[in-house]
Design goal:
Blueprint (H helix, E strand, L loop, with lengths): L1 E3 L5 E3 L9 E14 L2 E13 L4 E9 L2 H14 L2 E2 L11 E5 L2 E7 L6 E2 L2 H10 L4 E5 L5 H42 L1 E3 L7 E3 L3
Parallel strand pairs: 9-10
Antiparallel strand pairs: 1-2, 3-4, 4-5, 5-6, 7-8, 8-10, 11-12
Length: 201
């Protein structure tokens, strides 16, 4: 896009790229800090970003005004994205997670259940792309702690999924090795033990 300034010179303006992530404001609060000259007022924003295709992140930042706090929180969330292990629209197994005074419980659900969860945890689960899951908050109702607890739970599930995949790969490799060894073994004829028949192809 080309525009002309007051002197008539051509200037190029680049259009802002549309973000691939959806964002939701979980918490927006005014915070004050007592300084030598008085109180300093700032704004704190808690943002959850997600593409609804397994990637999700959270960011908390402060700024002099609301827009600055939100933009800083979005940048932090983009840097701290994680991948959610999704199997048939739900998580692979049950998990309990604690963060501070917040305690949450996530449980896989069958097709058609939807997202049964409340508060800030629901926002994280929706933006991560999960379709069928049951969540419960047991501890504090602090939104920031609950969001971080949900993120930590999804991180643990990602590690568990990687470990499970690694074990399956090792098991499959072991089975392949056993079948190869079996093919290369010599089979002895029962009627005539002196004659050997090789099973190698």
């Amino acid at each position: 896009m080309i525009k002309r300034d007051q002197k008539g010179k051509k200037r190029k303006f680049n259009k802002k790229k549309e973000s691939e992530f959806d964002q939701k404001i979980v918490d927006l609060a005014r915070v004050t800090r007592v300084m030598a000259g008085g109180k300093r007022l700032r704004f704190r924003a808690t943002i959850v970003l997600g593409d609804k295709r397994a990637r999700v992140g959270v960011g908390v930042a402060k700024g002099k005004d609301v827009s600055l706090a939100i933009s800083k929180a979005v940048k932090i969330a983009e840097k701290n994205m994680i991948n959610t292990p999704i199997i048939n629209g739900t998580i692979p197994c049950e998990i309990k997670q604690k963060f501070g005074a917040a305690r949450i419980f996530l449980k896989p659900a069958k097709h058609g259940t939807g997202i049964i969860a409340g508060g800030a945890v629901r926002t994280v689960l929706e933006l991560s792309g999960l379709q069928n899951i049951v969540g419960k908050i047991y501890g504090s109702n602090n939104k920031i702690n609950n969001v971080y607890a949900a993120i930590e739970a999804l991180k643990k599930l990602e590690k568990l999924a990687e470990i499970k995949k690694d074990l399956l790969d090792r098991k499959n490799a072991k089975i392949k090795d056993n079948t190869k060894n079996y093919k290369n073994e010599e089979i002895v004829n029962i009627k005539n033990p002196k004659s050997k028949i090789t099973n190698s192809k």
